[in-house]
Amino acid sequence: MELGCTAVRTHYVVELNEPRENVAGLIRVAKKGCFAESVVQAEVPLISTIEVNEKPLSLEGITRG
Known about the structure:
The protein is mainly alpha-helical. The protein has two helices and two strands, in the order ααββ.
């Protein structure tokens, strides 16, 4: 059975004594620099390695090579 999701949602609660346009700019910059958001927005390969008792373990369909 394949697992997946159809969306990832974020919710921001901000309390600052700053103009709304400054807060909006801050959020835009933060989202552009967020590694986690960029990973879910773009398809990227998932590369897994496994070690058991300090020795590599290769599992078909999970690890490479």
